[in-house]
């Protein structure tokens, strides 16, 4: 049961804590970061005393406090928590504490809800902090216009959740990217001013900020104190890190985010509310791997997190593209079953008029010209071979060359004066239109029911510009996302066993809002293993491997035309929810044999890969990568030592295997099922030559502290190293 909190309330879990002083008129954060331990009343008083800053020259005449809901009323000159107005008036919010509740959870963490009132605007704010046992802090606000507060709507321009940062956070890391090169890291010094990343694409985008991290100078995967925020919203977003010369109270900077609201999008009439997306904040003193561990633990603790072994997938796109033929696809399914595939997914091209990407979107019925008996014969054949059946859909989109667009042009999202340019020959469907929503829901329900579909690859292949709808070209970005969530929630409720993948031109919609309704993501349309090593490495900063689709493609990459060795492609695709993206009927016997061996290796190792800790080594040379997964109890590990390009150095020197215990005892071997990598040396090192033939005993002092001398691989090669604890 919630209780009345103490004046200073502390949430603690997994070595981190949040301390809030319920001061008047607006509470403030005293501390967010490392756990301060069990604090006595005197300790809490000392924490509050030392949170009082100096009064600066040429400044407001009271100490500047950085509150839970900072505005100019606090003397705060940075980005305010919220902004808005009443028909051009009442644009200076003035809030006061009106109540609070506190609950502690037996497994660690708990919840604090602080209620604020803006009497001048008739606006109430309920600000909730939930600290999970993983140590991830979820922050969400609900803004409500009071009944009887006047007839004019309150135009909400901004609502962000913000937390303070200390002076030692001097560097920033976030992400950018493009199609087939998602989640490319970028870093910079954290200086005075505002580092803001605004997303205006109707989805997080392939250049998504993804996770904004502030940290100590030189932080890396295993070193440094870091603070981070992720916005769990599948539409327009805003991330920011901000630092003013006068600081933020006794703190130095600010980290936060929320939904990017378009003008006129949220107009609160009396009795109406707006709820911000959840912003997930996390702290770690163990670098980026420490942050990843917290987010992975948060996701794995969800009641609906996938618990069954993640089936090996074959997706038909790079095998046949739009060239659908029942007999050919049945042969492909037979070959897939032979190599150990457990899920067969029919990609784009199955519905009416869909011979290219220029037509058919919106007409979600099977094309009788290509599938005269429907998809039933293929689906039944797939299941008879021991696999489940999946299907590609893009329900939020429409081609103008479609029966749907011709019958219902008013369902196409866009201005009344006319549509702007198409992208990939398509436009967004107005899912907030009740009839359009009902049509899509019924079409998907019918497909899943008729064909016993176990898995939907749910795509979203364009950015949403000019997201307005009738009447009056009202902004529709927010309600479009809400309608998507209702659509997914309703479909999953009607089909509890159905799994859904979030795909958006590859990795263009990966956030914890969509992950609350889906079972995995497609991180990139690029299967080139050189690119995939980086894409998967950084997607894993937020998501555990079992939620990330990792497919092996043909030797010549569909997206880059680069030709790579199959051993490198297979090793790269092993570290995730694995699959195949190529025409197996065209593969020679020796390639089928390697795919079959890889399939068996994936099934053997997925209990470890999909439950362990993701670890990544900090290496000076970016041409080399070392990453792996270590069992939660430390009993086993699998590492990938990979080289992307050549380096000036002839030898790597000793490299520590991250995640192992320096005092432990281990056995090590090289997994050879995928073939051995090509070496840029004539032989050795000595341990490698022995480990190729079987287990060798090596202490943790060597593996984790001194390090192993690693072989120098040729470019685009990888080595798999398995470790087990013993003794």
Structural write-up:
It is globular, with a radius of gyration of 27 Å. The strands form 9 sheets. Strands 5, 6, 7, 8, 11, 12, 14, 15, 19 and 20 form a 10-stranded antiparallel beta sheet that branches. Strands 30-29-26-23-22-21-32-31 form an 8-stranded parallel beta sheet. The model has no long low-confidence stretch (mean pLDDT 96). The protein has 3 domains: 8-300, Distorted Sandwich (Beta-galactosidase, Chain A, domain 5), CATH 2.70.98.60; 313-609, Alpha-Beta Barrel (TIM Barrel), CATH 3.20.20.70; 614-725, Immunoglobulin-like. By secondary structure, the protein is α+β, with helices and mostly antiparallel strands. The chain is built from 13 helices and 40 strands.
Give me a quick take on this structure.
The chain has 727 residues and is an alpha+beta fold. The protein contains 13 helices and 40 strands. The chain folds into 3 domains: 293 residues, alpha-galactosidase from lactobacil brevis (Beta-galactosidase, Chain A, domain 5); 297 residues, TIM Barrel; 112 residues, Immunoglobulin-like (Sandwich), CATH 2.60.40.1180.
